[in-house]
Write a structure and sequence with these properties.
The complex is a heterodimer. By secondary structure, chain A is an alpha+beta fold. Chain A contains 10 helices and 19 strands. Chain A has 2 domains: 221 residues, 3-Layer(aba) Sandwich (Rossmann fold), CATH 3.40.50; 122 residues, OB fold (Dihydrolipoamide Acetyltransferase, E2P) (Beta Barrel), CATH 2.40.50.140. In chain A, the strands form 4 sheets. Chain A has a 6-stranded mixed beta sheet, sandwiched between helices. Chain A has a 5-stranded antiparallel beta sheet with strand order 13-12-11-14-19. Chain A has a 4-stranded antiparallel beta sheet with strand order 2-1-4-5, covered by helices on one side. In chain A, helix 3 crosses helix 4. In chain B, helix 6 crosses helix 10 and helix 10 crosses helix 12. Chain B has a single domain, classed as MetI-like (MetI-like fold, Orthogonal Bundle), CATH 1.10.3720. Classes of the chains: A alpha+beta, B mainly alpha. Chains A and B meet through strand 6 and helix 2 of A and helix 11 and helix 12 of B.
Chain lengths: 384, 324
């Protein structure tokens, strides 16, 4: 069992800057949780507090049921992989892997066995005698992971471990981390600013902004049920299209979304949820994912500014009034001319429209006030 | 296709050096003129003060009298006669011993001291305190030698602070400056006191380049503060230590005459007479024998060059660091 529980975790620096506000999070045993958010959102600080590299200003941190606020990092039974590997440059790969075990004064044969096992798993056996400077970025990253693995920790912390790699290697290493996870089967906390990494690796994702947790949920939840404008805009590639100055209308007990003068009757689920939440007609921001746009039909119009042929799909950047619209259209579905400068009609399926309150930015359907007040925001659950 | 494939080199070959055409050379100088201009003053200074005086070394091989021209028809060449004189001089062995002891003891104490100080300052938790201490440690470097020896007199003179305290508690007054056995400790310790902070700067600068994440990784690995110093900090500054070691060994016998001369008394002359003070005395005081003094100085420089080459070769062989 290696659960990590954060209760009201807070970090205030000496200059009174609050980097992390009141984080409440329960990470289950063997769960892979990803902390994601833009630079300066507090994700690395949160991870460092778990590692013991940052003092906890307020709140409680439990690892495996034990309060570890004042426990030294080495005694927390955690291991960490750093962004720039943090390998000891003067030591060989073997010595880098063995260092923690040597400090623990483990017998030489045990150290040798563990180091060679890990090297075998990570396919770095042939580099054991080399020094880090003689390795490529990917190989160094493996050594860094290996150094954490030999310790057989309860919790595996990773602070943007792939951000120093090029795009191709990053994809490759991401796949390797997924494989690795299935092999070592422990609790992972992973920090990244890359939402693709977050979506592909995490069992659950914690989306942070300005030191606050904005949403905690599975990749599907945060993609399909974003609780606010920030989450909706941060998760998904290309980013969600937002249409400002839209209206939520209620006529004869039926909800409509009015986008640029075009009415969309919302789907059954939306009708029920809005009714249950007692939502009154109001100004909204409507969100439509680029993947959910259909061109060549509907009453919304946009002028194409850039049209990118990506092989299997077209990436179209268009302008509809004041709003920029990005459309991701599979090539096989395309029957309309989408060359630059043309004006096209487009629409979407109404049940896929996300509805955000224009004032608060909260999703009228998925924002859960109770969980948000507890600083552990999740999307709202409905029985129907 | 085949023709193209043939042109591809099978293994990496060094491209033949192309001779620069005149046009290219002119363009090179034009393109780099700002940088060449910037380096010019440094080149001039080195040439004027380091290379040009080498010409004067010739008088070591002459029967040279003050007022003679170094190269003229009347120049009297005497080969290695001046060197032979020095080797048979009764002062030769005492001078060698005194210079060697002062230098080697000073080096053994003085070389590791700034390294230890820099590692300690770097490992301190309170960075403000470390900065204050570093400033305090740098202070003595700016004291002139005359003032430093004046301070030594104030502290260790017959009526200085140390003797006053000793007398206050019923002890005898002791003439430190007249005692041979007090000269070396006073000379070496005061030199190291004056320079350890200043010499530490270069190591502190090197330590500032250590990736903090390496320390964090070591903390998570369970390393204590001392283990972090030994496994992270010290290896990080080893290249710098190697370079400084080679340079220190290269200048080992190059101790200056000023301080020894200022501290010299008839009582400590047996240990305070060094090669440099002897050169000064023979070359510039009394009836100057500049040819002889130059020969001694040149001999001293040759020892330094030999030491430098040995140190550099050894370092190159056993580590990855060397000056050339």
């Amino acid at each position: 069992m290696s659960e990590v529980v954060m209760k009201g975790l807070k970090k205030v620096y000496d200059n009174k800057v609050t980097a992390v506000h009141d984080v409440n999070l329960e990470i289950k045993d063997k769960e892979f949780i990803v902390l994601v958010g833009p630079s300066g959102c507090g994700k690395s600080t949160t991870l460092r507090m778990v590692a013991g590299l940052e003092e906890i200003s307020d709140g409680e941190l439990y690892i495996d049921g034990n309060l570890v606020n004042d426990v030294a990092p080495k005694d927390r039974d955690i291991a960490m992989v750093f962004q720039n590997y943090a390998l000891y440059p003067h030591k060989t790969v073997y010595d880098n892997l063995a260092f923690a075990l040597k400090l623990r004064k483990e017998p030489k044969d045990v150290i040798d066995k563990k180091v060679r096992e890990v090297a075998e798993i990570l396919d770095i056996t042939q580099y054991l005698k080399r020094k880090p400077k003689a390795l490529s970025g990917g190989q160094r990253q493996r050594v860094a992971i290996g150094r954490a693995m030999v310790r057989d920790p309860k919790v595996f912390l990773m602070d943007e471990p792939l951000s120093n790699l090029d795009a191709k290697l990053r994809n490759q290493m991401r796949a390797e981390i997924i494989k690795l996870r299935s092999r070592i089967n422990t609790t992972f906390m992973y920090v990244t600013h890359d939402q693709t990494e977050a979506m592909t690796l995490g069992d659950r994702i914690v989306i942070m902004k300005d030191g606050f947790v904005n949403q905690i949920g599975t990749p599907q939840e945060v993609f399909n049920k974003p609780v606010n404008l920030f989450v909706a805009g941060f998760i998904g590639m290309p980013v969600m299209n937002f249409f400002d100055h839209c209206k939520l209308l209620l006529e004869n007990g039926v909800y409509f979304a009015e986008i640029r003068g075009v009415r969309f009757q919302l789907g059954d689920f939306q009708q029920k949820a809005l009714r249950q939440n007692g939502v009154q007609p109001c100004d909204i921001v409507a969100g439509i994912r680029p993947q959910h746009v259909t061109v060549g039909e509907g009453d919304l119009t946009a002028k194409i500014e850039v049209s990118e042929m990506m092989g299997s799909e077209y990436n179209i950047h268009a302008r509809s009034g004041d709003d920029e619209v990005v459309m991701l259209i599979p090539t096989v579905d395309l029957t309309t001319d989408v060359s630059m400068g043309r004006t096209i009609n487009f629409t979407t399926r109404p049940h896929l429209i996300q509805l955000f309150d224009r004032e608060s930015g909260n999703n009228l359907i998925w924002y859960d006030a109770e969980s948000a007040n507890n600083n552990a925001p999740v999307c709202k659950r409905y029985d129907f | 296709m085949e023709a193209n494939a043939k042109r591809l080199p099978l293994k990496r070959e060094r491209a033949p050096k192309k001779k620069m055409t005149k046009e290219k050379r002119v363009r090179y100088f034009k393109d780099n003129s700002p940088y060449l201009l910037m380096i010019l003053p440094a080149v001039l200074v080195v040439f004027l003060f380091n290379y040009l005086p080498i010409y004067g070394v010739l008088i070591a091989f002459q029967d040279f009298m003050p007022g003679d021209k170094i190269l003229s028809d009347s120049t009297l060449w005497v080969g290695f006669q001046n060197f032979e004189r020095f080797f048979s001089d009764p002062q030769f062995w005492p001078l060698m011993k005194n210079t060697f002891l002062i230098c080697i003891i000073g080096f053994v104490i003085g070389f590791p001291l700034p390294i230890i100080v820099s590692l300690m300052l770097n490992a301190m938790k309170g960075k403000k305190t470390a900065k204050v201490l570093q400033t305090i440690f740098n202070g003595p470097h700016f004291i002139s030698l005359v003032v430093l020896v004046g301070m030594l007199t104030l502290f260790f003179g017959r009526y200085g602070l140390v003797n006053n305290i000793a007398a206050h508690f019923g002890g005898e007054r002791y003439s430190y400056f007249l005692e041979s056995k007090a000269f070396r400790p006073m000379y070496i310790l005061s030199s190291n006191w004056q320079d350890f902070g200043w010499s530490a700067i270069i190591y502190i600068a090197a330590l500032s380049n250590v990736d903090p994440q390496q320390h964090e990784a070591a903390i998570l690995d369970g390393a204590t503060r001392f283990q972090r110093v030994m496994h992270v900090d010290l290896p990080a500054i080893m290249p710098m230590v190697s370079v400084m070691l080679i340079m220190s060994i290269g200048g080992l016998m190059g101790v200056g005459y000023e301080k020894a001369l200022l501290m010299q008394t008839d009582g400590n002359l047996a240990v305070s007479e060094l090669i440099s003070t002897y050169v000064y005395k023979r070359g510039l005081t009394g009836v100057p024998d500049q040819a002889y003094a130059t020969a001694i100085g040149l001999f001293n420089s040759i020892i330094n060059v030999v030491l430098l080459i040995i140190a550099n070769t050894t370092s190159k062989k056993f580590s990855e660091n060397s000056l050339w």
